[in-house]
Amino acid sequence: MGAARLLRGLARVVPADKLTVVVNTGDDEEFFGLHVSPDLDTIVYTLAGVAPPARGWGVRGDTFHAKTALDRFYDTPWFQLGDRDLATNLYRTDQLRRGRPLSAITRSIADRFGVAQRVLPATDGRLRTIIETSEGALPFQHYLVRRRGRPRVVAVRYRGARSAEPAPGVLRAITGADIVVIAPSNPFVSIGPILAVRGVRAALRAARARTVAISPLIGGRAVKGPLAQMLASMGHPRGSRAIARLYAGLAATLIVSPGDAGGAREGERDAPEMVEHDILMRDTASAERIARFALGHVRRAA
Q1: Is the full-model pTM beyond 0.85?
Q2: Closest of 250, 274, 245, 279 to residue 262, by C-alpha
Q3: Residue 30 and residue 271: Cα distance in Å, rounded?
Q4: Domains along the chain with CATH numbers
Q5: Bridge-partner residues for 121, per DSSP?
Q6: Sequential pLDDT tens for the chain (302 residues)
């Protein structure tokens, strides 16, 4: 959700033909026999202007008649899929079964929604985020949506990462970018799966000097989601220091909320420089201000 909010601001600042979004596919799951790509769809819907800003997923004004009918046959009342969103997933699944790669299908979906920016899945391969919890291993959607992020997290792993190759254009998008922005998303379950794809972490290291990350924490707490609890249960430091450690060697700058930079870089090798700025995205205007600040900081440092 943090990535989608920031993207609304970036889309107002960066020309469409200059903006590429590399998207996590570790959340992908199969429901009702369909290949569902929640993060890819959220990004496409956001850029198309059809995403509901408050809810953060699905299509604005969607209905759920098909989902209600499907609940008669499937034991997944906890996972919501709107009628218009269902159409996207039907198309994706049909195209995958015809042998098209996910990146080409995503391009077609974006085209149908009139999205001019380039949206790339991190990989065309099968990559799944698995949450190791005190109650056993859970696929990401089961952990976050079905269990509402309640089980204590012990570790996060990325099934299929060893064989996952970057989708066409991903590495070039990073190495050839004037500026790379790491969105204020959960570094374990949103950014981590992307970094797990072969070659992505190395490409980001090479682009470190022009990479800026935006912290997903404000005052040590996530605006939404279980990140703060995950950091504690997995033994990471609190607040900005944890984010700095996770992005050490990958980003030259980490933008944090006012008051959050104190001591965050101490003892961290290759840790990003802490820069304070209001990072709470209340609306598109505030997202645009953050985007301008992040891009401007990198340009000034160049």
Answers
A1: yes
A2: 274
A3: 38
A4: 2-123 (1.10.8.240), 178-301 (3.40.50.10680)
A5: 23
A6: 688 999 999 999 999 999 999 999 999 999 999 999 999 999 999 999 999 877 878 999 999 999 999 999 998 888 899 999 999 999 999 999 999 999 999 999 999 999 999 999 999 999 999 999 999 999 999 999 999 999 999 999 999 999 999 999 999 999 999 999 999 999 999 999 999 999 999 999 999 999 999 999 999 999 888 999 999 999 998 888 899 999 999 999 999 999 998 755 555 678 899 999 999 999 999 999 999 999 999 999 87
